[in-house]
Specification:
By secondary structure, this protein is α/β, with parallel strands linked by helices. The chain has helices at 16-30, 47-51, 66-79, 90-95, 114-120, 135-141, 194-204, 219-228, 243-251, 267-274, 306-316, 320-337, 340-351, 365-381; strands at 3-8, 34-39, 55-58, 83-87, 104-108, 129-132, 153-155, 177-182, 208-213, 235-239, 255-258, 278-282, 299-301. It is 39% helix and 16% strand. Helix 7 packs parallel to helix 11 (306-316) and helix 10 (267-274) crosses helix 12.
């Protein structure tokens, strides 16, 4: 039986990384893999649920120190996985020199963010492969590692569980135009623009309603701003929801509005498309434009362009034929290109590639300190 250790900072209920963890773990388990998960920084609000199905480990109570790195390495070596899949997990990256050489460490690039690129680039000679979900992310990661390592990057789009995310037969209330936002309630996801966007939408679409899934630092101020504008009766904050709850809400929605400023892939976009929801999202070159086909499966709008989002939504509202056609196209493209089966097929193929690392011997503790010092020196020189 093949065995994998999924390393994450926390095991949460909502978010792109949460969806990825849920999808990868469930699909690998269905294929006979023995799945282990470790949360290194925070337990997370979905830890207990995951622990009912998989073997999960909680390291959040241990203070950050070299000792914690050694503990992470000991945990990995005791599990003896075939693969470690590190997801923006610095602690596990630091443990790579201490890992048994037969284990293949793989790092997933989850965000188009220099901080996370830097994490994935830790001990680069030790990394068996990097998985980038988007072409743009792979291209931008190149500058964080030496050129001879670029061949170890594989572009594999994230997949969505088609058994969980699928279209509903009809939208719940045809008299209400349901708009959906899903994500972190912070400026990185453009949540601060929602009041302006939605207020302008309601001036021409009076039957528009907005459901907001997710939580974050802007929740209280957003609630106050909607009340100030007299829109509170048209807004529903649902907070964090489980994957099946998210899918159910998507099936009752017409449009996903996501004025995001940063994505590593945009898995919520694909989840919405899989449910037949038309995405109106920020155009992030090499990322969201790999998911959405302009005017066919959805609309791409320049980031922070409030009027652009409003006009795109207006193009869909009131034209049932167009809405139906784009909804169907969105579902078809998502189901064909971004299924969870296709993603895991490609993961399993990657895991079986020959190990071409030159540096994979297991270090002693003193050797780890030396290699870490060299790592920091090279980082400063770069």
């Amino acid at each position: 039986m093949s065995r994998i250790l999924l390393a994450v900072t926390e095991i949460n209920r909502i978010g792109g990384m949460a969806s990825h963890l849920y999808t990868v773990s469930s699909e690998l388990k269905s294929r006979g893999w023995e799945v282990h998960c470790v949360a290194t920084n925070t337990r997370g609000d979905y830890f207990d649920e995951m622990n009912k199905v998989y073997t999960c480990y909680d390291m959040s109570s241990v203070s950050l120190s070299p000792k914690k790195v050694f503990m992470a390495a000991d945990l990995a070596n005791s599990i003896v996985p075939d693969v470690i899949l590190a997801n923006n997990c610095a602690l596990m990256q630091y443990a790579f020199p201490l890992i048994d050489p037969e284990v293949k460490p793989v790092s997933v690039l989850h965000s188009d963010d220099s901080r996370f690129y830097a994490i994935a680039a830790l001990f680069p000679e030790r990394v068996f492969r990097w998985i980038s979900p988007a072409v743009g992310v792979a291209d931008r990661f190149h500058k964080f590692i030496d050129e001879h390592l670029h061949r170890r990057i594989r572009v594999i789009p994230h997949g969505v569980n088609r058994n969980l995310f699928f279209p509903g037969k009809t939208k719940m209330d045809p008299s209400a135009f349901q708009i959906l936002f899903v994500g972190f309630l912070g400026e990185t996801k453009g949540a601060d623009l929602l009041p302006d966007i939605f207020e302008k939408i309601t001036t021409t679409i009076p039957n528009a309603f907005l459901t907001i899934l997710g939580d974050g630092p802007l929740r209280a101020s957003l609630n106050a701003e909607f009340e100030k504008r007299g829109l509170q009766n048209k807004i529903l904050f649902r907070g964090t929801t489980s994957p099946d709850q998210t899918a159910e809400i998507m099936r009752t929605s017409h449009v996903l509005v996501l004025p995001t400023n940063i994505e590593g892939f945009g898995i919520v976009i694909v989840e919405a498309m899989m449910c037949g929801v038309v995405p109106v999202v920020s155009c992030l070159p090499g990322i969201t434009d790999q998911l959405v086909q302009q005017d066919e499966t959805g609309f791409l709008v320049p980031p922070k362009d409030v009027n652009g989002f409003v006009e795109a939504v207006k193009k869909i509202h009131g034209n049932n034929n167009r809405l139906h056609a784009m909804s169907l196209n969105a579902f078809k493209v998502a189901a064909e290109k971004f299924s969870h089966e296709t993603m895991v097929d490609r993961y399993e193929s990657l895991f079986t590639e020959p190990d071409d690392r030159n540096c994979k011997g297991k270090k002693s503790l003193s050797g780890w300190y030396l290699e870490t010092a060299v790592q920091f020196l090279r980082k400063r020189m770069r």
